């Protein structure tokens, strides 16, 4: 099965540029005494009947690669957001630009999701346009709820750190069943949001419905943040397996892309949640 985060079609690391799957965790092969039994990147000497050999270290993904690519991608998002905040005053025009940037970012993200290989240009382009969108939206929230973006950033960092801690402690095991259940909930959530958007657009739910500023909106926001944390656990699992399998170094761009999408999801939901609580003070 494919792992995914909010874009829902982003592939993970895998054999022959597919996805290795949660059921083939490398630890299982190690426990059986053959560390390459289930490694999609292991190489076999052709014609000699030799057992699979470990992939060479050179050109293989490491945690340093993931950290550098993720920092680069998130840095582009932050730079785009800062420039948009500083150069675009709150107005109808800037809101239209933010909406257009979000559409472009979504298209670039979907194109990358369906490509067999990661494209740094597409990923960084996604990050730049996403940054512009976040900068304008954050400025709009800040103009009404002063300090909301800063609180949302702190909240995003807290959720991310807590998720990583829980994952590394082994309190959450990312298995195929875990992923299936989580993705089913995520799909139901997105469908509910689409229906809610249509109801709001046609005036059936003028107060925002599920995405309103009341208690129901807060509950939905918390659910959305928990889904963001779920997406992060899938990202952590993909990174862990990619390094263990000896995935190509270029796959670290996919790790950066996935983490960025998940963090943006959490930040936007955290921003709404902060606004809801501020609105009710």
Protein described:
- The protein is mainly α and 281 residues long.
- Helix content is 66%, strand content 0%.
- The chain has helices at 26-31, 63-87, 92-114, 120-144, 148-168, 176-201, 215-245, 251-279.
- Helix 3 runs antiparallel to helix 4 (120-144), helix 5 (148-168) crosses helix 8 (251-279) and helix 6 packs antiparallel against helix 7.
- The longest helix has 31 residues, at 215-245.
- It is globular, with a radius of gyration of 20 Å.
- The termini are far apart.
- Mean pLDDT is 83; it is low at 1-37 and 43-55.
Taking all Cα atoms into account, the compactness measure Rg is 20 Å
Average predicted local confidence, pLDDT: 83
Estimate the global geometry from the Cα principal axes.
globular
Largest sheet: none
Q: How many helical stretches?
A: 8
- Write down the oligomeric state: single chain
Give the helix proportion (percent range): 55-70%
**Structural class from helices and strands?**
mainly alpha
Q: Strand-residue fraction?
A: under 5%
Uncertain runs with pLDDT below 50, 5 residues or more?
A: 1-37, 43-55
What's the SSE pattern?
HHHHHHHH
Distance between the termini: 45 Å
Total beta-strand segments: 0
Q: What key attributes describe this structure?
A:
mainly alpha, single chain, 281 residues, 0% strand
Summarize the structure.
This protein has eight helices and no strands. It has helices at residues 26-31, 63-87, 92-114, 120-144, 148-168, 176-201, 215-245, 251-279.
